Structure formats: structure tokens, C-alpha cells
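Notes continue from the previous slide.

Worked example: a multi-chain complex. Inputs as given:
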Amino acid sequence: MTERSGSPYPRGISKGISERTSEGASEIDAPFRQPDAGFLVRGGYVLTSSEPEMIPDGAVRVVGDTITDVGTFADLSGRFPGCAVLGGPADIVTPGFVNTHGHFSEALVTGIAEEYALGDWLRTLIDAVAPRLDRESAYIGTLLGGVQMLRTGITLTNDMFVCDPRATPVTPGVVQGLEELGLRGVVSYGASDRRSGTAVEDVLAEHAALREAAAGSSLCRFRVGIATVAAQAPSLFARSVDLASSHGDGVHIHLHESREEIEHIRESRQMSPIAYCARHGLFEAPTLAAHCVWLSDDDIRLLASHGVGVAYNPVSNMILASGVCPVPRLRGSGIKVGLGVDGPASNDRQDMLEAIKTGVLLQRLDQLDPAALTARAALRMATVEGAAALRLDPLVGSLEPGKAADLVVFDGDSPALANVHDPFQAIVYCAGPREVKDVWVGGRRRVGDGELLGVDVPALVGESRELARCLAREAGLGELSLLAAPD
Ligand SMILES: [Zn+2]
């Protein structure tokens, strides 16, 4: 987008979380000023995504940024009487959700272009928007999408920012946004040289800038992004493989989302995209593949034998009429499958609870089997299995001593959760964003009583409107967007 006058980073949106951290105290942290004592998060049910899977009248003890103890409330409150207690006996506590696939690059183009399937949607909308994104839109888009994610219990998001490289690298704006939100991120640049005029060196410079930004963040990790196999000429693809293997980075790529994509690669490279990745060594790096809708038995064997994790994105698969990811077959082959909300332009909500429920319903409908995917399995996919798909399960994804204190408290006093016959089904089928009461990321509360802490949401919304209007006009979205109309 056109550079605007003044500071590239508008003030007044983030209330300065990092500055307050250095001061050591704020209203966010008020109950936790004695770091040694920690605090207890109590729930009528604590769902751990570990063993035991459910603790009635349970609690989690957090000290600093880490979970130190998990057990019954009676036991923990007896052993640690000095701890502040949050949550309550009617609430449900879960691990923070791991969103295994998203695109902050689409945050300003939501609710648009519903009539297109994937190929035309990419050509019509994404190809128009991607060349016009800059660091400011990356920063504001990340805040706008991240706020919605946190409100639905997401504490880690695996992002792929799709834009053209620019002289001032764009993607560090994602890291800045995540840092200010206090939201954990795996960040990647969805590199492509499909559009004319894109130089390989500029693509590599964008990767390098994002890697450097992530290295300076305690919340972010870098992966090498590849938009799709078709989006990269063989020469750039080879550089991407080199990049991922030489630095030990993971990879984030779209694979087998639509039949059109597979036919195209079969024609041009005489094998499926998954076989192409395997043949050229991409899967030697830890790889997260989004979608994996259309798969042969050979494709599944390749994914399983290389430990490729899969992101299942039921809402965007339905919106783009792509197809149904064969989740039971993948999981039955030992492949780790997480859930994803996908980008704001293809979903369009950034709502993990919607993705979890829709993910279950779509499998049941596809297989005409109410046992195709259970609530319990879906909750594991949204937490520890998603973390494992990203190879981050030693750090996050379950409530276990030693793991990062990423937790969600669901409000047991809300009408939707008034009567809990089975807490797994209550979360998957009954809960929505309104039931999300508190969210912690690394022991810091980011959502309190359903409100974002540390972010001026009205100011953010106002700022995003100006950017979205500008983007719609510059991208020429007049056929699709009322925002593109002249004043
Ligand atoms: Zn995607």
C-alpha cells in the first residue's frame, strides 16, 4: 500500500504491554506480584489433553510463565495456600488452542468474494491484494486477527503472510503485532515468484527479515513459507529447500487443497505436489502442510513416513468448495492433524471454537457416521495434536508440569454452560467466544472477563477501517467491495 505520512506504527492501539512488563506490574498482573507463589486456575473440570484427561474440581498452578502443578483443587490449595485463585468451581479449564493455519495478510479483506473456488479466488482477490500490503497493514492486520483469535482461546497461531516482497520488508510487522498482543506465533512468509517481476533475492530477503524479527521475540518462531508448489518456479523451490535445511527451520506450505492444484502439478512436473516435495527433500525439514484434502494412498504414506503434520481447515474448505480432508484416514496412519481457522479472507471468522465444531460436523456428514470424529478427539486436535503437528508439543498443547502456562477458562456460569453433562461435548458443541472468560499465554493474562487486556480495540478497529478502504481502492476491488467506492 502507499506509504502514509507519519509514523509507520500508529500509537494508541497497543497500550504498551512490553513497556508495562519492564515496569513489573500492571492491572493485568495485579494478583501475581509474588512470582514465587504463583497462582491457581480452578475449574469444575480441568481438561488436560494429557493423562488424566479430565480432573473434576481441578486446578493448575502457574509460577511465572510455566505450569508447575496440575491436580485437584483440594490438593493444590492445601499445598499452596498463598496462591491467588482464579477461575471457579463451575468453570472449565482447557489448554490454550493451537491454530495450525492462518494468514494475517488477509485480515483486511473479510466477507468478500464468496462466489469463487480456490483458483479463481486466488487470482481475483489474493493476487490483487498481495502486492499492496506493507508493514503497517501487516502490523494492523495481525492485531485485528489476533484479537479475534485470543477471544476464542487461541494462544498459538501458525501464520503464513502472503505478500510481494518490498524494499522495506513487510513481514516483521506480524512479529510486532504478535508481541504487542502477547500471542504466541509460528511465523512464515508465503513466498511465491508466480507474479511477474518477483526476484528470488527479494524473496530471500523477506524470509531473512522475518527470521531476524522472530529471533528477537520470545513468543515467535520462524518457518520457511512456501505458498504452494505451483507458486514457486523449480529454481525458487530448490532455494526454499536449501533455506529450510541449512538453518534447521521448519516449513509451512499449502498442499493438495484442490483438485486443480494437483492436476496442474501432475501436468507440469509429472507427479503429485506431495511426491514432488518428498522427491526434492522438502520433508527432511519439519513440515506443516495445510489442507491435504485430495490424497492418494501413496500421498498419505509419504506424509506419514516423513512425519509431516497436517492442518485441517474445515470452514475454509467448505467456503471455497474444496472438499473434505480425510481426517480419520490421516490420524489412523499416525499423522498428527491439527485444526486451523485459515485466513480471514477464506473463512472468514477467526474463531477456533467455530472451527472445532465445524470440523467435527463435517467429518460426521461426510462419512454419515456420528462416531467419525468425537468431541474428545477434536479437543485433542485443537490442543496437543496441533502442537505436535508443529513439533511444539514439548512446550505447549497440554496442561502438564513444565509446559508453558497457556490456558483458557470457560465461564461455567454462562447459560450455554449452565449444565455440563460431559465437559468435552460442552466445549465443542455448546461454547462460543462468549464463554471464553480468561486466556493466559505464558502465564500472562491476555483476556480477562472476556475482554482483551492491553489493547485499545475501538482504536484498532478505527485504524483498520482506513487501511481496508485504502487497500480496496488500490487493489481495484470495486467489483467486489463497497469500500472501494469513491467518497
Ligand atoms: Zn491457507
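Summary box: The pocket of zinc ion is lined by residues 101, 103, 254, 290, 342-343 (CB under 6 Å). Confidence is low (pLDDT under 50) at residues 1-12, 16-30.
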